[in-house]
Design brief:
Blueprint: H1 3-14, E1 22-27, H2 32-44, E2 50-59, H3 65-80, E3 85-89, H4 92-99, H5 103-122, E4 126-128, H6 133-145, H7 150-153, E5 159-160, E6 163-164, H8 172-182, H9 198-211, H10 217-246, E7 247-250, E8 253-257, H11 258-263, H12 266-280, H13 287-297, E9 303-306, E10 309-314, E11 317-322, E12 337-341, E13 344-348, E14 353-361, E15 381-385, E16 391-395, E17 402-403, E18 413-414, H14 415-421, H15 426-429, E19 434-436, E20 442-445, E21 449-450, E22 462-470
Parallel strand pairs: 1-2, 1-4, 2-3, 4-6
Antiparallel strand pairs: 5-6, 7-8, 8-11, 9-10, 10-11, 12-16, 13-14, 14-22, 15-22, 16-19, 17-18, 19-20, 20-21
């Protein structure tokens, strides 16, 4: 095992990127970084308890015949390893124009939607991306220049849901040397030299310039991102604890204890306010809006219109609610809530499904075989969970709902953020059933995420099988 392979293997272990039995889909553009990632993971899969199940390549159709040649290269590379390659083509330029967004943003959105579809088609539990420590440094600088806080300066995380980045401690030049030693070719993307793109200017101009002052500037910036990530995680935990004492949810609105909010340290108060605004509105709120709401808590304003929501001071509390109209979050159906006995069956007509709960002896850790959620609607699913409650709750999403999804190393995530990550439209979000235990803890966001708190482990002696079928089908 070479030094590079050993280092990547150690990073996989240290960051818990590849649990035993993981099925890994590798995203490959054809460039040196992703080709090296493919080769490294295929090599490591022979030594570790995970499997590479295939490759995913999205043809962005931005460079004509060169883009088509990239796709053929990736198909040939996968063939040499005897593994499947899922390829799609998307007109990214047309998508960017239709959505009124940049080429880079359109490409990012299209890639991640495609990766999810490819992962589902191959039964992958992890999606590996080839970002390096150089990419991390570039991302840190770009976000620093745009005025990001600790969340933004955390840059790219080693693991986020199913997405993993095994090369975040590896330099780009090391990967090129590895490929030369392996005798593996790769494709060069001429658009990476286009300095009209801000990332390319940072890569080819700013970073080399900073390197004159600090020779190891890439490693330094990556270390700063790691420090910011730890700070951000701690602040998130502290903000969640504060929210539990000063916030109440009430049918789509939020009530905030104004005095308690004012008493918080500014760093913590801003984090709490930013989370509250994100819960109520799907539109982004910046530093100025956060400060104005803090000013309202201090008694400076009686009411306040913010992007997608409105705040009103009502005695000792601030009442936050989504604004009806352009940009406001709206429900596609009325709120629903049903009791699901264990064992038992319940119909959920708002979601068009029937759900059942059955008791079984635990046979093996992990979730049962499932069929994927398609087009934002519930299909056929089954999961095994470790829960002792004899009565569960099935309802739709509510403002402020959070859980600890599998694959996030115990970190909490808002359901709203989960919907955004999985590209679930605003109208469809209110149809997705959420299963909770008798203590109102989220167990399963059907088809989208299982809580780590209820996963079946080797210590589980009995489990509950939750099944979902289209309404009218026999369970």
């Amino acid at each position: 095992m070479t030094e590079l392979v050993a280092r990547v293997s150690a990073f996989l272990s240290h960051q818990a990127l590849m649990p035993d039995g993981a099925r890994v889909l590798v995203a490959v553009s054809g460039g040196g970084d992703s080709v090296a990632l493919w080769c490294l993971l295929c090599e490591l899969s022979q030594r570790r308890a995970f499997d590479v199940v295939g490759m995913a390549h999205l043809n962005h159709q931005l460079r004509g015949v060169a883009s088509d040649a990239d796709a053929r290269f990736c198909q040939d590379l996968a063939n040499r390893f005897g593994l499947p390659c899922v390829i799609e083509a998307t007109d990214i330029a047309a998508l960017a124009q239709a959505e009124g967004i940049s080429i880079e943003t359109a490409g990012h959105q299209a890639r991640h939607g495609f990766f999810d579809r490819a992962a589902q088609s191959l039964g992958a539990t992890r999606i590996a991306l080839g970002h390096t420590i150089d990419d991390q440094a570039e991302t840190y600088l770009l976000r620093l220049l745009r005025g990001a806080g600790t969340a933004g300066l955390s840059a790219m995380r080693p693991v986020l849901d199913r997405v993993v980045r095994p090369l975040l401690q590896v330099r780009r030049v090391e990967l090129r040397e590895y490929l030369v030693a392996q005798g593996v070719s790769f494709r060069e993307d001429a658009s990476n030299l286009d300095e009209r793109v801000s990332r390319n200017r940072v890569r080819h101009d700013l970073l080399p310039h900073l390197g004159r002052y600090a020779p190891r500037v890439v490693e330094t910036l990556a270390r700063e991102a790691e420090i910011a990530r730890a700070d951000d995680e701690w602040l998130d935990q502290a903000a969640n604890e504060s929210r539990a004492t000063l916030v109440k949810s009430n049918e789509g609105a939020i009530e905030v204890d104004a005095e308690a909010l004012t008493s918080l340290h500014p760093a913590l108060a801003r984090r709490v306010v930013r989370g509250l605004l994100a819960d109520v509105s799907d539109r982004g709120c910046g530093f100025d809006q956060v400060e104005r709401l803090r000013g309202m808590a201090a008694g400076l304003l009686p009411s306040l219109d913010l992007p997608g929501c409105r705040a009103e001071r009502r005695g000792p509390v601030i009442h936050l609610m989504a604004r009806v109209g352009r940009g406001a979050a709206s429900s596609a159906c009325e709120p629903f809530e049903y009791q699901l006995d264990v064992p038992g069956v319940v119909a959920v007509p708002e979601a068009g499904v029937t759900m059942s709960a059955e008791c079984h002896a635990a046979q093996r850790p992990g979730r049962l075989p499932v069929e994927p959620l398609g087009d934002g609607h519930v299909g056929e699913w089954a999961v095994g969970v470790d829960v002792e409650a004899r009565s569960l709750c099935v309802r739709n999403w509510r403002v402020g709902d959070r859980f600890r999804p599998l694959g996030l190393n115990g970190h909490r995530k808002k359901l709203q953020d989960l919907f955004v990550d999985r590209k679930i439209g605003r109208l469809d979000r209110h149809r997705v059933p959420v299963v909770l235990d008798d203590r109102d803890r989220v167990i399963w966001v059907v088809g989208l995420g299982l809580s780590d708190d209820f996963r079946v482990t080797g210590a589980t002696t009995s489990m509950v099988i939750l099944r979902v079928r289209p309404l009218g089908d026999k369970l």
